[in-house]
Amino acid sequence: MDDSARMWITPVPALDPDGEPAVLLGHDCASRDAGERAISRLLDRGHEGEEGVFYLLPFDLSARYERTGDRLAVVVTTSRQLLVKEPADPADFAALPVDGADADRVVLLRREIVTDFVPAEQDGEKQPVLLIDHDGSAASLADLFDRFEAGEAGIAVLNAE
């Protein structure tokens, strides 16, 4: 489940080229991995606000930062009860690990990189994680940004702990 090649810390040019670095995770919506398939199902049930903008509740998907030495990890989790309600074969998601920090949640994705970057905090809240939802054929981060600008990829903002 660990795929460090799809985690980046960089400004997001499509959103704010002069902005602060953000933590980005690539999510392959065509993946056969049970955790990524679950993320795709949960992204599809987002709550639409203004046209084309969908909101995720922290109960649906959330991220947690973990640091061990020089490694920064991001763990994406969901509620076990919510996952059980999703229309799928229960065996699809039975092997997903229980989140060690909260037994009511399961781990869908874990990525880590070597970095000294420390996610910013504002009013006691950690910097959100940006999840880039794409079809898996992107070759690089620049390709993902190009796909986003062309409307071929989406960005989900996940609350982080």
Main sheet specs: 4 strands, mixed
Report low-confidence residues grouped into runs of 5 or more: none
The rounded distance between the terminal residues' Cα atoms is 20 Å
* Anisotropy-based shape: globular
Evaluate the radius of gyration: 15 Å
| % residues in beta strands | 35-45%
Give the proportion of residues in helices: 10-25%
Backbone structural class = alpha+beta
Q: Helix and strand succession?
A: EEHEEEEHHEEEEEHE
- Trace the largest sheet across and list its strands: 1-2-11-12
Number of strand segments: 12
SS summary, helix count? 4
Q: What is the arithmetic mean of pLDDT? A: 82
In short:
This protein is α+β, with helices and mostly antiparallel strands.
Structural overview:
The protein is of the alpha+beta class. It is built from 4 helices and 12 strands; from the N terminus they run ββαββββααβββββαβ. The protein has a 4-stranded mixed β-sheet. The longest helix has 10 residues. The radius of gyration is 15 Å and the shape is globular. The two termini are 20 Å apart. The mean pLDDT is 82.
Keywords:
161 residues; alpha+beta; 4-stranded mixed sheet; 4-stranded antiparallel sheet; 4 helices
Question: What topology emerges from the helices and strands here?
Answer:
Layout: E1 7-10, E2 22-28, H1 34-43, E3 47-48, E4 54-55, E5 62-68, E6 71-79, H2 80-85, H3 90-94, E7 98-99, E8 102-114, E9 121-122, E10 125-126, E11 129-134, H4 141-149, E12 154-158
Parallel strand pairs: 2-11
Antiparallel strand pairs: 1-2, 3-4, 5-6, 6-8, 7-8, 9-10, 11-12
